[in-house]
Every structure is written in structure tokens, then in C-alpha cells.
Amino acid sequence: MSLIWNKLLLECSLTRRINCRSISTGLSFSRNQIEGNKSEGTSTEGEQRGSISKAMQSYIERAKAHSEFMNEQHEEFNLGRRHLANMMGKDPETFSQDDVNEAIRYLFPSGLFQTKARPMMRPPEELYPKQKAAEFDASGRPYHAFFYTGRPFFFQMLHEMVNKIMKLNLITGVAAELKEESTSFINGTVWIGKEVLENRLFEKITDVQYSEWMNTLERIITHRHVEREIEYLKQFRVPLARTSLVEQVPPVLLQPDGSKVVTVERVAKKRCRGDITVRMPGTGEIIVNGETLEYFKMVQSREMVISPLQKAGLLGAVDVDARVEGSGETSQAGVVRRGIALGIVALGAESEPLRLAGYLTFDRRNKERNKPGHDSARKKWTWKKR
């Protein structure tokens, strides 16, 4: 029995040693495999971190060049602002942008009609467009879902509008009628212009795309459930830019014979002043300083005078009596034209066609002042080589 028992103990000890060796070998193999996998993963991540896509490299270069350019423009603007302050005898530290504009207007007077064509000096942020942030990650994958359309923000906006229209179409219940209160916010307002939309999106769009954007908004406005999207639509509406005619239009006087008379006083253009009286109904007679329309020698001046009446369809229906003085024939014709336009608007003519034609707009142009040391506004000295 003792021999058998010893034999069993020996066999058990041998089997335990073999199992332990196999387990330890397996553990060592698994550890080596895990460490190898870790090293491989680390190298892969390092390669990904170290490699930057060409798109990202190009963006970094453009961003760096843009930053350097803006810094240079800032330095030049600050230097020019200090020079202007010294020329005007003011403190450069408290020299504001309004002071800059006033100094340029005083030192560099211009007779150009367009304000954008006149000399100006503004901060670089107002003159140069802002640069977009990175639209893709380091591996070159774009962030935006509409990146490959070329105008991701514009098409995302269209996508949101279409989704709103679809949600409005899914509203069940009795079909609501389009109430005037729902669309009252559009009175006196217009859609934002193409340039304003481009500034909001930081993208350039075509005229066709802008018209598609407006048509989509019009579909929302004409929907029977538009009251649910009024706040969304208001962000794209701006007040209508038009000249206030309330202060300009003179009162209408009713005569005993039933006719209406309007007198527009102190109509001005350059150095010309005039008083224009319009009577309705009339025979189409036009008197200027006691003479007929032949008071103006040039045909262009005569056409200028009768153009508001032709535009409003009142040629031959009103009488005009004008008293003008000063300046030349063209300025006097402009004064009579504006006086007639204001007069017929007061008598009930439609103002929008006349406003769009420019007949109601005050002409602010004036004679350019003489420059110090010169005989006139533009005359210079005779240049002599010797």
C-alpha cells in the first residue's frame, strides 16, 4: 500500500509541474503579445499625429500669412492715425475714428459723388474680409456635412428652410387662413441684400442662388401656418431704406373753385433756389419766371422739367408756376423738376416710381472749395523744368 501511495503522489506532483509550466508559458506569451500590440498601436498613433494632411498644411500657411498681413495693416493704420492727430493738433491716444474721418474730409476734400470713392482710412477689420476657420481636421476629413458643395453654410441654410416647410406641411387640423396679422411684420421691410447675406455666411453666392434663397423664404411666408416661423423670418428682414416724405411733402390748399394747389418753397440745388406751385386740375401749362418752357434753351433741360409728369402720367393735367434764381440752367431745371415731383406726390401721385427715378432725392453736390495757395479748386501751378 505504501508503494502504491508513493507512486500516486509522484504522478500528481509531475502533472502539477507540467500544468504550471504550460500556464506560465501561456502567460508569458500573452504578455509579450499585448506589449507588442501596444507598441504597434503607439507607433500608429504617432504616425497619425506626426502626419498632417496637405489641406491642413495649406490652411496653416494661409492663416499665418493672413495674420502677418493684418498685423502689418494694423501698424500702418495706427501710424497713420497718429500722424493725422499730430497734423490736427490733437492727442493721438484719444483720436477716435470720427476724428479720423473729419480730418480726412478737411485735409483731402473731394467732389466725388460716390462716398466709397472718396479718400478714407478705416481699421483693417472693416476693409478686409474675415478668414474662415479650419473646415477639416488634421487627417483632412471635413467637419461640415455640406463641405463638398462648395458653399456649405448657404446650402445648410436652404436645408433648414426646406425642413421647416416640411414640418409646416405635416401640421394636421383645420387649414388656417393666411391672416394679415401673421404677415404684418413684412410691411415696410425688405429681404436682406446679397452682400449682407454673403457677409453673414462668409461665402460668395451667385445671383441665381440668391434668387432661390428668396423664393424659399417666400414659400414660407405664403404658407398657411407661417405664424409658427415669424421669429425665424424676422432675422432676414430689414427696414425699407427710403426717403421720409412726411416732412418734405407740403400741404394741399383747396381753392374756392374746387382746384387743389401745392406750393413747394425753397427747393435747392447748388446755389439755385426756387418756389414751385402746382395746380390740379390744369391744362398742362408750365411757366418759369414768367415765360413758357422755352425759358430753358437746351432740350435736355426741358425734358428734365416734364419728366416727373410723364412718369406719373399727369402730363397735361396740371399747371406749374416756377420762380427760380441763381446758378445755371441745368441747376434751375433740376430745382423745377424736384419741385414738380414733390408737388404731384402731395396731390396723390404714386411716390415709389418717382423715388426710384431719383426725382425726390435731394442733390447734395456743391461747388468744391478753393485749395490754399491755388487759384481755384483744381487749378495747379504751371510746371517748368528750368
From TrEMBL:
Coiled-coil spans in chain: none
Molecular function via GO: RNA binding; structural constituent of ribosome
InterPro entries hit by this protein: Ribosomal_uS9 (IPR000754)
Biased composition, class Basic and acidic residues, residue ranges: 366-378
Cellular component terms (Gene Ontology): mitochondrial small ribosomal subunit
Gene Ontology annotations of biological process type: translation
Region (Disordered), start-end ranges: 366-386
PANTHER family, alphabetized: RIBOSOMAL PROTEIN S9, SMALL RIBOSOMAL SUBUNIT PROTEIN US9M
Record protein name field: Ribosomal protein S9
Protein source organism: Allacma fusca
